[in-house]
Write a structure and sequence with these properties.
It contains seven helices and twelve strands. The chain has helices spanning 15-26, 56-67, 82-94, 120-126, 180-189, 207-215, 236-253; strands at 8-11, 31-35, 48-51, 71-74, 98-101, 113-117, 132-136, 152-157, 170-174, 194-198, 218-222, 232-233. Strands 3-2-1-4-5-12 form a six-stranded parallel sheet, sandwiched between helices. The protein has two domains: 8-104 and 228-252, Rossmann fold (3-Layer(aba) Sandwich), CATH 3.40.50; 114-222, Rossmann fold, CATH 3.40.50. The longest helix is centred in the last third of the chain and has 18 residues, at 236-253. Helices cover 32% and strands 21% of the residues. Helix 2 packs across helix 3 and helix 5 (180-189) crosses helix 6 (207-215). By secondary structure, the protein is an alpha/beta fold. The structure holds NADP nicotinamide-adenine-dinucleotide phosphate. GO terms for molecular function: precorrin-6A reductase activity. Pfam families: CbiJ.
């Protein structure tokens, strides 16, 4: 099969992944985007889509072989690690070209008061007694904080949870992150003393970080997992060039 007919597989689930699919389809490539299936009605993406787990690294390896995938792009979330580990195993055995798209992490700026930690457990321990903390984390990451009965938590979520968070002293805030001035007003009104969040990068949730800097509030920042040995590019533009160069040279050889 000519290289141009073989699909590029994008492991997605992020805004960047869906923009990348649009970009590569516009470049003339056949693209299959893969989603884990966590969202009930995911937005339609350009190109082809498949939904659901592959069944571990073996399943992904088999899928790549069956579909005759020409190139694999891991464009999953910075904190999604299992699927990325599976991708590394799959490319080691199928020997197809591979690249990771990952938006750059936020870097501390003058005035930021960050404590960097590497896990949720470390974040739990880093909170001082009697703090009032904005927990800016997904609902699946709240449970470890349940041992801190000496801390008041404000848990911000977009949709109401099916069951209340398993915390001793908390209030729920159902809203999305706003502009910097909204975040400043929110942090002040709730008399928050700390923020706990993950270093997701990107602009959408950065406003709280800027507001914390302006107010001099400490942020307990959960660092991203390290990904040694993964060739990573920071934006869609550079992935587009990588794909052209890589598949162009494969095409010249076939
Ligand atoms: P994970 O722990 O790395 O993956 C768990 C399992 O879910 C994988 O082993 C795989 O199942 C399946 N999976 C994950 N991503 C997949 C994909 N793109 N296509 C097909 N199967 C996939 O990932 P997670 O943290 O649960 O995140 C799940 C998805 O949500 C990811 O695609 C990620 O990009 C997106 N997301 C995650 C976060 C986050 O905070 N972690 C935030 C926003 C979006 P099998 O082993 O059966 O193949």
């Amino acid at each position: 099969m000519p290289v141009s007919d073989r699909p590029i597989l994008i492991l997605g689930g992020t805004a960047e992944a869906s923009k990348l699919a649009t970009r590569l389809v516009a470049q003339g490539y056949r693209v299959i985007s893969s989603l884990a299936g966590r969202t009930r009605e995911p937005a339609k993406l350009e190109g082809e889509m498949r939904i659901g787990g592959f069944g571990g690294a073996r399943g992904l390896t088999g899928y790549i072989a069956r579909e005759n995938v020409s190139l694999l792009i891991d464009a999953t979330h910075p904190f999604a690690t299992q699927i990325s580990d599976n991708a590394l195993v799959a490319v080691a055995s199928t020997r197809i070209p591979f690249v990771r798209l990952e938006r750059p992490a936020w870097q501390p700026k003058p005035g930021d008061r960050w404590t960097s930690v590497t896990s949720l457990e470390e974040a739990v321990s880093a909170i001082p007694a009697k703090a009032r903390v904005l927990l800016a984390l997904g609902r699946q990451h709240i449970a470890p904080f349940s041992r801190r009965g000496d801390v008041h938590f404000v848990v911000r979520m977009i949709d109401p949870p099916e069951t209340p968070p398993d915390l001793i002293d908390f209030e729920l805030e159902l809203s999305k992150p706003g502009k910097v001035e909204d975040e400043t007003a929110f942090l002040t009104k709730k008399r928050l003393t700390h923020i706990v969040c993950r270093n997701s990068g990107g602009s959408a949730s950065y406003t709280k970080i800027k507001a914390a800097r302006d107010l001099g509030l400490p942020v307990i920042m959960i660092d991203r997992p390290h990904r040694p040995g993964t060739y990573t590019l920071p934006d869609i533009e550079s992935i587009g060039h990588f794909v052209d160069e890589t598949l162009g040279s494969l095409r010249a050889r076939t």
